[in-house]
Amino acid sequence: MGGWHDGRGRLWLATGSGTGSGDEAGGGGPRAPLPLEIAASYRARTRGLLGRDGVEGALLLTPASSVHTFRMRFAIDVAYLDRRLNVLAVHTMRPNRLGRPRLRSRHVLEAEVGAMAAWGLRPGTRLTVET
Hints:
This protein is mainly beta. Helices cover 8% and strands 31% of the residues. The chain has two helices and seven strands; from the N terminus they run E-E-H-E-E-E-E-H-E. It has helices at 42-47, 115-119, and strands at 7-13, 34-39, 58-61, 76-81, 87-93, 107-112, 127-130. Strands 5-4-6-3-2-1-7 form a seven-stranded mixed sheet. Helix 1 links the parallel strand 2 (34-39) and strand 3 (58-61). The longest helix has 6 residues, at 42-47.
């Protein structure tokens, strides 16, 4: 999945991803796409969520295998993704922390704390990005 550019897109969780079946009422994952910001340039990845008080939807850092929360104003959920956008791990990071690099991670997804659990996002979930 090459050719990423800074900008906006939409994030979909694969049907049936997460804690529920995805087709039942109340099943895991959103029924509609989530707003997504894409940070593909060095400058956009470096800026990330710094200076913000929140994020609508999620921010995709690509390429990335680790993140930090130094100088951030709020805690975030972080999902490490492989090159096919499969979730490898999900963690919550408080401000002023350094995340360890993930060996197979090619992308990192960031969202406000609690958002990923609400979406049913967990290891093994497959994501789709529309730009």
